[in-house]
Design brief:
glycosyltransferase activity, alpha,alpha-trehalose-phosphate synthase (ADP-forming), Glyco_trans_20, binds adenosine-5'-diphosphate-glucose, 425 residues, EC 2.4.1.347, transferase, 16 helices, Rossmann fold, alpha/beta, 43% helix
Amino acid sequence: MGDNAFVVVANRLPVDRVGGRYEVSPGGLVAALAPVLRSREGCWVGWPGDVGVELEPFMFNGISLVPVALDQEDFEGFYEGFSNSTLWPLYHDLIVTPEYKQEWWERYVAVNEKFARAAAGAAAHGATVWVQDYQLQLVPGMLKALRPDLTIGFFLHIPFPAPALFQQLPWRNEVLEGLKGCDLIGFQRHADEDNFRLLTTEIRTGTFPISIDLGEIEAAPEASIRNLRERVGDPEHLLLGVDRLDYTKGILQRLLAIESLLEEGKLDDIAFIQLATPSRERIEHYRTTRREVEEAIGRINGRFGDVGRPVVHYVHRSIPREQLGTYYAAADIMLVTPFKDGMNLVAKEYVAAHPGGDGALVLSEFAGAAVELHQAYLCNPFDLESVKDAIMAATEPDPARMRQMHDWVVEHDVAAWARAFLEAL
Ligand code: ADQ
């Protein structure tokens, strides 16, 4: 038993190792939970991000971090395997086919046990423990068995599939049992909660749409916005995409929509910036998606670009947080076109960067964010014409729509999200 009254358990610790030392990894979850962790003498249990590294608990920026070590087999079986090649595609409605492998499942159980034991060791008597996301669905049940005195919450950041899909999972009963160790499970959308409740009503559930830390998207200076637009040739319409390079995000679909509009002569003076963070690159489906995206970019630039004047500006790396605000502010049209997405924080970040009502958001109906940001130009990424129509509508945006969305995001930030969940718990 430890002495922490509040414990967050997540796959990753909120730090990245950069050249031998740790830096805070940016993200809303850290921003939302850091104040709670500090005020409630809390700690964060998670994997530091390096395979095979054993670390003692350490303090970082006033937060106590409890590292869980993963070896190469854990990384391959638990992380790349069961989490990202089984659960991720299954929970995103089979955009690619999930793989079901007994040895991955066994690693998932073993690693969930490591996390549960670490959390049990860190929590004080009667503490509150908040477990995050699909990688750790067995932790609540394991933790309840070890420590019946704890109050345990769980939040699922990704969608929860319809029962007919979930029931494909050979270990569906074990996963449900794991989740049943909770006192409260939170979902992004009512639709996810409803799907879950068709399987069991034994556990208390709720819908808590996650949001962003408004302080992280800094107001961009006018000069840097102008500079960015000049660098891409001062187009009439500057379009932007910002994603992890993941097959759920529909990056290829937005490129095909742009290509088709250029072909039809409906758009001409445009530039499209696609920022894509490398992601899960050892998994074949991710490599295929990257290949398809890069091929389309090459083709579009070859057909419609010119020397020194490409149509698509593509950056395959993570952009520092402080620069992201300039991209968002400079873009006339933001393209968020996932086939399926728990929430999609990029959509909210873009809206946050447009307090004046300028700009337009093209948003997939299948992103959780579409529930709250319903004034966006909504589209169906499975229907190319629908994406094209939304882009065309966004070329003449209604500022009232952006203002309403901006007001909503300002009122409903990530701190409000964390507060709502913890109060319900
Ligand atoms: P993700 O699938 O990672 O999150 P998202 O919500 O869009 O998706 O968050 C991505 C974050 O990474 C954003 O904050 C964005 O700014 C940042 N980012 C993306 N590309 C970047 C780049 N090239 N450079 C710098 N930063 C970049 C999962 C779920 C989502 C859910 C979140 C939170 O899949 O549906 O919204 O968790 O619950």
